[in-house]
Every structure is written in structure tokens, then in C-alpha cells.
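User: Run a structure prediction on this.
Assistant: Running it now.
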Amino acid sequence: MAKKSFSLSLYPWTYTAKYTTNGWIEEYQAKPHLGAEKEATLSEQEREALLERRNSFPQLPLVNFSTQYALSVFEGLKAFPQKDGSLRLFRPEQNAERFKRSMEGILMPPFPPELFVNAVKTLVRQNKNLGYYPRYSDTWEKDGFLSGHSVYIRPFSYSEPGIGLNQSEHPWVVIVSTPVGAYFEGPNNKAITSDMIRATENGTGWIKCASNYVISTLAKKKANSQGYMEAIFLDAKERKYLEEGSSCNIFVYLKDGTLVTPALGDTILPGITRKSIIELAQSMGIKTEERKIAIEEVMDSAKEVFVTGTAAGIAHIESVTHKGRTAVFADGKMGELTRELLLTLKGIQYGSHEDKFGWMTDIE
């Protein structure tokens, strides 16, 4: 089973921006807080009460197009502790551009990328100044930062009041943050193909919108109840080609030395970690392909399989079960290429590897 890494232990500083006839009106707000050290001594009941007050936005209407019809988009990105005590963001400009495209995709006024990046930097910096951030630990280096902690940042859109089917013309953008640990940590990393359909052609599969994650959640929970860590979606039309994991992109390392991931289209989310892994593998001289890949090719010809995403980073898949047949990869362990990509990516994020791609951004 997957470890619940998101505790919703919201940090005090939050951000909202409201779209008006005069453009975006921004506001930073410090929610109730006692200081990180003091809060660590609170009882569970006292802590929950404090966090509940932080997770209160009275200016946001309960009945609206987001809560009624899932007309909302979101992002997820991280700030990583560095050995010198600083925090650095991983490719925030990529999240900013995707957030803009997602808002346009559901007919919302797009949030300018420059506002997005500045707001994220400011929010992380303000919380850090109050002492709300994970400190770098030398112990993380022993397992290649698999146990490393970070700041998870969640920007999302939220519509104005509404009850009928309609588009949002004056939305809010809200940004909050919370500490986060390892995403997958359990007794197995087994996956099973799902009979559910995540996205169809000419739909919203390419948009990071809230509605996409209903099916993803149901499929993953069903897989978990059957003893698997992950659910894998196949295409809606032919039911034979890989699409995604429950909330992550998927890669297959074939026995011929080719790293394959499904080609982007309107049914697959353009993941930022996905993009980074392709660039990283190519820099290592690994042949990469973005194309259709049939589940039967995976079962017959894969030697490693892994999924990627902001939350997961890279998580290896030890086996895939499809229609009663199970294929095991790398003897059920993390494969050599998967491990090398994972350790290199995390090394760049936590500062132990050279950032030759220019992926990391200072918050100052």
C-alpha cells in the first residue's frame, strides 16, 4: 500500500489572487501560527484545531463551479532543502506554463506565469523565515535521498459563486504549502492494469484538472484493495496501449536498451518529471522513444518499469499484472537504470549533483 505522504500540515503563509476587471489582485496572508518549535509541543487535538484555522478561506464561496462541477485546475511542485540551509525550487517555470495552459483549457482567464513563479518563491521564503521548512539531513545521503523531505507547494484555481453549468470568468488562484516525505513506501511496488478509463480523445486528459483525478483515485484504491501499489491505465479506444499510472507518467526500459514512454496527446498529462527524465536519459546516452507501447510489449520485452511525477519522483514497478498474467521486472527489485536516473534526479534536486540543466531555482 502507498504511504500517505501528504499530511495537510499547512504552513502559515498563504497566497490568493482574484481575477477582476482590473486584472489579478494579489494577497499574501499569514494564518494563525505559534512558531514551528512551539507547535511541535502541542497535543494532537490542539494541533488539529490550529491547522483547521489555517485551512480556512472565508472569502472563497462554498457553492461555485469548482465545488459543484470540478471546474478547477491545480499544480504540484517542490522546494528542496540544500546542505547550506537554503531551499531551491525544481523547474517552477514549467509548472507556471502548464498552469496557464490548464486554465485556458477549461476557459478560465489564465494566470500569468511570472506571477506564479514570484508568488511561489515569496510564499516559500516567507514560511522559511518563520522557521517552517524541513532541514537538510546528512542521513538522507545514505539512501540517495529516498528518505528526503521537501516542501510541497499546491497552487489551484477556484471559481466565483455559481450553481448552473458555466465557465469561470473571475476565478481565484490559491497557493498553499505543506511538508512532504517519501511518496511510495510499502510492502510492494506491484501494479495491475485497470479496467477503468482515465481519459478519452478530445477530452481533458492533457489538462491538470480536478475531474481527472476522480477516476485515478478510484482505480488506485481498487488496485490497493487487491494488494497492488499502482493502477495502470490503458487507452480508451483499443484498450491495448499504455497511457499513465494512477497519477503519474510511466516509462518502460526494454531489453534492447530503449527507454520508452507513451507519446503525448490529448489523453496524457505532460509531466514535468517525465520531461526531465527524458532529458536526463538522453544526456546519459540512453536511446529514448515517445510512442505508443502496447501492454503486451511491456509484458514480453520490458526489463524495467517505473512511474514518474512530482509527488513520486521516480518509483519503480516490480511487476505488472494484466488479465491474470504477471510479468516481473529486474527480479522484483529496482533496476539499474531506474536507480541511476532516480539518484541523479534527487541528487540534482538536493544539491549533491551538478545542476548542468539549470533546473533548480533559488527562492531569494
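Residues 42 and 48 are 9 Å apart (CA to CA).
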